[in-house]
Amino acid sequence: MIQFRDLRKAFDERTVLDGFTLDVVDGETMVIIGFSGAGKSVALKHVVGLLHPDAGDVIVDGRPVSTLDRAALTTLRRDIGYVFQFAALFDSLTVADNVALGLRRRGLADEEVDRRVAEALALVDLTGTDAQFPAELSGGMRKRVGIARAIALKPRYILYDEPTTGLDPVTSAVMDRLMVRTREHLGVTGLVVTHDMRSAYTVGDRIAMLYEGRVRQVGTVAEIQATGDPVVRQFIEGRPE
Amino acid sequence: MIERIGRRAAAAVRAAGRFGHFLGDLARAVPDVATWGRPTIVQMRRIGVDSLPVALFISAFTGIVLALQASYTFTGTVPLYIVGTVVGKTMMLELGPVLTGLALSGRVGASLAAELGTMKVTEQVDALETLAYDPHAYLVLPRVFAGTVMVPLVVALGIGTGILTGWLTSLGLLDLSTAEFVKGLKLLYRFKDTWFGLAKSASFGLIITLVGCRLGLGTRGGAEGVGRSTTRAVVYSAMLILVLDAFWAVVLL
User: Fold this and answer.
1) Residue A90 and residue B131: Cβ atoms within 8 Å?
2) What is the pTM of this model?
């Protein structure tokens, strides 16, 4: 279970998170929506300790992330796969080596690494791209490699940072299908940050709207679709006013 | 005015604090040999072997100029075999290490800052962390170790090249025999000349890679930030090389 507890974070004078509180229960896919710059990705980075909160904390399976030392943080990160907005693949490594990097860190035998790389690439429909470099792939393929890198580790949680941003509608739908498939195959708990409502409705069990640093509303897809909150309505309908 | 000075002083203290923290992170990563061991070999080739052409080019022409300028200065006043002394001493003690160091601050320092800066702004460094790697062990230590080991080797070859071209120049253009040049080379030579230049070079390699890596990992703000880090890496490491050069002269000579 991932628990955001009264999380506060500011950069210089700008407050981004101002008492963000949210529970992500095991087995569900929680989608955090919000305007650009609302702090969705900032919240996500606190889960794996990439950012340190000014106050409050994120608690993962009872472990307060901000209090963990380096070794404990490394252990925690082994339970979490992170899919970055622009994939964050290593340019100098092939697709297979990108996916294998985290596995090698865990000291797995070469045969096991190869097997899990092949399995992960098959799950994202990228079999046969092993020897290619990230620069040779399209944006959608790069994001799928990012997912393969995360799921190869067989994590308990997967965090997706804007998985469909910058993709055409068809490729976005492919990404959505992959996220659903990943949950069905691996049973992982998902936390997705997006402002793509079609994606949110497709992959989410629950949706939380982050607004002015805190949760404005959280509920099931049906509850969000039927909301009477004017801010949430404006966002999900994409109205400028 | 006072406020501006205060702000700058506070920024300098913060920067020093961040650098101290960075060194602490590096020290903590040293026992993680499994992570930094293999990448260090790759970096030794990139930082050392790949820098040889520029280093040898600089040294070769420095040797020629040194021989000609020494001859011009000494003609009619000092025995010409002293040209060998000047070429040897100057290449070993000063020009070999410093000119190579300055050239590598551009080639290696800029390259490290740009590479790590790009990795930082494209979240590759964050990705490493989420894969349970310590970026200091995986990215920084291999480059710092490689720089500290390989720069003295590059400088040693550069010194050899400079002396070689100085000798060839003496033979071809100064009517100096090999025996006379070698006589000058041996005159006043002390073993300290050799280890002083190489130890100094190791400190230059250390500072070039430390500054390049630190500024790269501290990059913010996309392509513009990468450009800023790259420029700073060259300027800061060049300045620090000159400061270190003076420091070692005061302490060791």
Assistant:
1) no
2) 0.88
Mutate which of A47, A77, A162 to disrupt the B interface (most B C-beta within 10 Å)? A77
Alpha carbon distance B120, A23 (integer Å): 30
Other C-beta atoms lying within 10 Å of the C-beta of residue A240: 4
Minimal CA–CA distance to A88: which of A163, A186, A190?
Answer: A163
| Beta pairing partners, A15 | A10
In A, residues 71-100, which contact B (CB 8 Å cutoff)? 74, 77-78, 80-82, 84-86, 88-91
Strand partners, A11: A14
- The 10 Å Cβ neighbour count of residue B131 is 24
Lookup result for tokens 């070039």: B208
Tens digit of pLDDT per residue, chain A (241 long)? Answer: 999 999 999 998 899 999 999 999 999 999 999 998 899 999 999 999 999 999 999 999 999 999 999 889 999 999 999 999 988 999 999 999 999 999 998 889 999 999 999 999 998 889 999 999 999 999 889 999 999 999 999 999 999 999 888 888 888 888 899 899 888 888 899 999 998 999 999 999 999 999 999 999 999 999 999 999 999 999 998 887 6
Distance CA B239, CA B232 (A): 10
Give the C-alpha separation, B174 to A170, whole Å: 76
CB contact under 8 A, B131 and A89: no
Task: Mark yes or no for CB contact A50/B132 under 8 Å.
Answer: no
* Chain A contact set for B129 (CB, 8 A): 48-50, 77
A117 touches B: beta carbon within 8 Å: no
Contacts of A83 in chain B (CB under 8 A): none
Distance from CA of A223 to the nearest CA of B (A): 33
Tokens of B98: 């410093």
ipTM of the complex: 0.89
Q: What's the length of chain A?
A: 241
A21, two tokens: 């509180």
CA A184 to each of CA A72, A180, B169: distance values in angstroms, whole numbers, following the listed order: 29, 6, 76
Listed in sequence order, the residues at least 6 apart from B195 whose beta carbon sits closer than 8 Å to its beta carbon are none
Q: Which residues of chain B have pLDDT under 70?
A: none
> Are B122 and A77 a contacting pair at CB < 8 A?
no
